[in-house]
Amino acid sequence: MTTNTTITQQINDVDIEAIADLAETIQTDPEVAATTWKANVVWNGGFASETNVRDFAPVASDEPISLGGSDTAANPVEQLLGALGNCLAVGYAANATGLGIEINDLSIDLEGDLDLHTFMGLNPNGNAGYDAIRVSVALDSDATPEKLTQLHQQVVGTSPVGHTLGRAVPVQIDLA
Amino acid sequence: MTTNTTITQQINDVDIEAIADLAETIQTDPEVAATTWKANVVWNGGFASETNVRDFAPVASDEPISLGGSDTAANPVEQLLGALGNCLAVGYAANATGLGIEINDLSIDLEGDLDLHTFMGLNPNGNAGYDAIRVSVALDSDATPEKLTQLHQQVVGTSPVGHTLGRAVPVQIDLA
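Predict the joint structure of the above. Result:
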């Protein structure tokens, strides 16, 4: 048992012990699972702004020249795709470790289709957001195809950002 | 007319000319509005990964220690909130400029509630994503409350990330 735990810890550099501890805590006290996450965004003029999360360095945001920005950073809809990709990466690493699957390499390509009419004010009541998002996951592993399919289904079924995008979330925006 | 254009251009450092050009192009050729945005995410071991967009420097992602990460960067669900805030910042800057409203300062606080049971594999078929997202916008401007309400409604009605979160988007995730 101790040997198994040690081996599991070493797979994918994932601290499986921390996750097991959290799962145990949540099962004892379900309220621990009720989390609230925060971010602050400060406008820097034009279409430039920055995201502040906890004590981390600000992350820049801008729009391409063609959309009226100064093109100094990824734009918000690209950041959204990045958030989904990073979430899936965590999911693959966590679930692979739980299943005893070693990941050699993992690269995730994301793309989304967005019609600019609504954003540009040319289609009142239209959809300004992504109409569809497609993700292609390149996962290099020696695990069997069956194991990898099981891994994939677990990841898709438990992805916080994936579920947020796939469902209609109540978003309340108040002008203070 | 030329004078007006010049004045408008100087408000909020927004290149309103570029936006007007794009709107005109889209009205002539609607296909121009059909855009596809991309990102790539590379896993770096454990729960660390990075987002790559066009030629910009990679942006780091990680999870807090309590979730099994090494806490070196904002996590994906925080990045998602940041993407929404940055999108709204662009929306306020663009629409304010169109309405002739000068923005002195703009800061946006975002938070979202997320129950960890599903992510932790403790609630099969549950919602792993945000149950609700709340945004508080602090906008400092000398414009009238009526004008600011109009601005706010325009922004909320045309936000690409806001609409993406507020609607169920088809997300197709394929293991290559």
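Chain A has two domains: 37-73, 75-166.
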